[in-house]
Amino acid sequence: FLKELLVGDHVEDFVILPNGVQLLGLGWEEALPPDLRAAFLGCRSVAQVAQRKRRSGATSPTMAPTSGRPELVEKYRADVQFVDARRQQRSVLRKLKHELGLRLDEALRMVEAGEVDPASLYLAELR
After folding, report:
1. Could you give the count of Cα atoms lying within 13 Å of 32 in the half-sphere of its Cβ?
2. Which tens digit of pLDDT belongs to each residue from 35-47?
3. DSSP letter, residue 56
4. Which is it for the CA torsion 127, 79, 42, 53, positive or negative?
5. What's the rounded Cα separation, in Å, for the pair 51 and 28?
6. Residue 89: in which H helix or E strand, if any?
7. What is the pLDDT of residues 28-77, one digit of tens each?
8. Plot region of 76 (φ>0 → left; ψ -120 to 50 → alpha; else → beta)
């Protein structure tokens, strides 16, 4: 992995180190800002994050109503993605890059409609 990372030709490629955060000696505190840690606390999946966001109020984009944190879906952007039945990576509402709240809502709708396996949902390029 280290050789590939340092000298490999990976322009426009993703190099993934499974369990990389742990292997690099980074923890939850070093990898995520405090407001995201509070929003994700207790969630085991992207579907649970979306459900928490929904419970916080249909008109409010706040993900964790009791956290006292800024409106995270307005502060952060992320691509909500899943792996389909043909093992192809798909993006939820790909053209709405600045609408994390809408993307989470659509992902949850897709899960509830049986269109997406909740275990295959993930957040990418969180920034």
Report:
1. 15
2. 888 888 888 888 8
3. T
4. positive
5. 22
6. strand 89-91
7. 888 888 888 888 888 888 888 888 877 665 443 444 443 333 377 788 88
8. beta
Q: What share of the chain is helix, strand, coil (3-state, %, to 5)?
A: 40, 10, 50
Of the CA atoms within 13 Å of residue 5, those in its CB half-sphere come to 6
Q: Is 64 exposed, middle or buried (0-12, 13-18, 19+ CB in 10 A)?
A: buried
- pTM, two decimal places: 0.67
Q: What is the C-alpha separation between 120 and 90, in angstroms, rounded? A: 10
Tell me the C-alpha distance between 30 and 91, whole Å: 27
Residue 53: count of CB within 10 angstroms of its CB: 23
Q: In this structure, which amino acid lies at residue 34?
A: P
Contact present, 21 and 31 (Cβ < 8 Å): yes
